[in-house]
Amino acid sequence: MLIFATDLHGHLPSYRGLVRLAREEPRCRAVALGGDLFPRPGDLGGRDPSGAQARFVLEELGPLLRALRAARPEVWIGGLLGNDDLPGAQVALDALAEEGLWCSLHLERHLLGEFGGEELWIAGYSGVPITPFRLSDWDRPDLPGWAPERAPEAPVVSGPTGALEPTTCEALLARPSVADELRELTSLGDMKRTIYVTHSPPSGAGLGVMHGGRDIGSQAIRAWIEVEQPSLTLHGHVHESPRESGQVHALIGGTRACNPGDSRRQLRALWVDLSQPGAAPTRAS
After folding, report:
1. Contacts of residue 221, Cβ cutoff 8 Å, sequence gap at least 6
2. Which residues does the chain have with pLDDT short of 50?
3. How far apart are CA 256 and CA 227, in angstroms?
4. CA 256, 259, 260, 264: dihedral to nearest 10 degrees?
């Protein structure tokens, strides 16, 4: 079994609940996190939000993961950053990785183990279609020639020291698109035996529905799933989507795609059967 949660935004009771479930379920073999792991920069105050997020990793997340590793050394633990996570915090995650406590998924592929008589892998992607929000480290044009319906008015990105620096929407649109970078994800290995975690959900599956009913899921991720047909994809980003659409998972062809919703105030996690990753997940909380 794999337990998946996303958009915890530094909420320690949700992290503690997740670790407790992973420790207590004897069949658990993996814990995967879908991005937006840390307190939001705007909630941290001060001039060094990147450093504050890194301290959260080392002082809060690290001890929880050490306790899980001590109790369940066989459980794989990993995930990726989301659009509210600053790249500067990756250094702290790398320190946890050196302890064997974390595997980073952005454009990387890791072996989970053998299930159903075959090896099963996990890989991921952090990029999101350009949002109207200021923080833009992970923003990308969704498709070549694409433009957002609402562009950020004063976007910022992390500079070399981790401080936030102004940029422009034109600079964001000049980046490689989500569709471009997904080709790199595809090249990592056999997609039929890989679970994919992307922070953004696909469009048109009831997994990226905002308040008011507008779907802001990625068209590029949707097209990629339709063509490549992995057995399972896991997503986050659009916190309210399960409440708006009534769906935490959907089929796109033969692919099971899931978004359990955010865990900012209460843990919302899903169990996935690793021997049948394309089967419907079950609620863990």
Report:
1. 178, 182, 198, 200, 201, 202, 203, 233, 235
2. none
3. 14
4. 160
Q: Which two tokens stand for residue 82?
A: 């989301």
Pairing between strand 76-79 and 30-33?
parallel
Q: What are phi and psi of 194, to 5 degrees?
A: -130, 130
Q: Regarding beta strands 2-5 and 232-234, do their DSSP bridges make them parallel or antiparallel, or are they unpaired?
A: unpaired
Q: Running DSSP on this structure, what letter comes out for residue 57?
A: I
Residues 6+ apart with CB under 8 A from 7: 34, 35, 36, 82, 236, 237, 239, 261, 262, 263, 264
Helix H segments across 37-111?
41-44, 49-56, 62-71, 90-98
Structure tokens at 178: 């989500």
Contacts of residue 164, defined as CB under 8 A and 6 or more positions apart, other chains included, come to 41, 49, 135, 156, 157, 158
Select from 148, 125, 129 the least CA-distant residue to 217: 129
- How many other C-beta atoms are found inside a 10 Å radius of the C-beta of residue 234? 30
- Report the alpha-carbon distance of residue 199 to residue 15 in Å, rounded: 18
**What's the token pair of residue 273?**
């059967």
pTM of the shown model: 0.96
pLDDT tens digits along 245-278:
999 999 999 999 999 999 999 999 999 999 999 9
Question: 25: which 2 tokens?
Answer: 């379920």
Tokens 């008015």 -> residue: 153
- What's the CA gap between 184 and 282, in Å, rounded? 31
